[in-house]
Amino acid sequence: MPSHRRTLLKVIILGDSGVGKTSLMNQYPLNLAIWDTAGQERFQSLGVAFYRGADCCVLVYDVNSLKSFDNLNNWREEFLIQASPSDPENFPFVVLGNKVDVDGGNSRVVSEKKARAWCASKGNIPYFETSAKEGVNVEEAFQCIAKNAQKSEEEEEIYLPDTIDVGSSSQPRSTGCEC
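Structure (tokenized):
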């Protein structure tokens, strides 16, 4: 059975301006198509073309900014509306709490516990605390992102059989993180 697969995975990285999205992206030199809003968050609705076809969505906030954390809901909802994934309940997201290095952690306002609780409430989204500046947990986070994006892409794989059996049903899918 021949299959047609894309060789490039599309990862969308979203979050408020200044949370470190570009810095995180630049720390991880893997061959992913990572689409960064490049500080244009003021255009909240970035358009369907930006989001469509994504294999994973990374939500980034600054652990020193409650507002950037509170806005994760908006970014997640905006992505689901614009991308219209076929199975929104199981679409792979990863959350990164960035800038853990700032001020030796003394200016932190969002606890790891609070962030993990939010991720659990959204279907057990994988969570990593990172420092793009110092490279803390960036490799591990992007390994998980790449794994989830690849898993998502494989589940969307299109098979072109020689004959079509209209009586077969599709198997249930799971996109749980095993990172």
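The helical segments are 21-27, 48-51, 66-70, 72-83, 112-121, 138-155. The radius of gyration is 17 Å.
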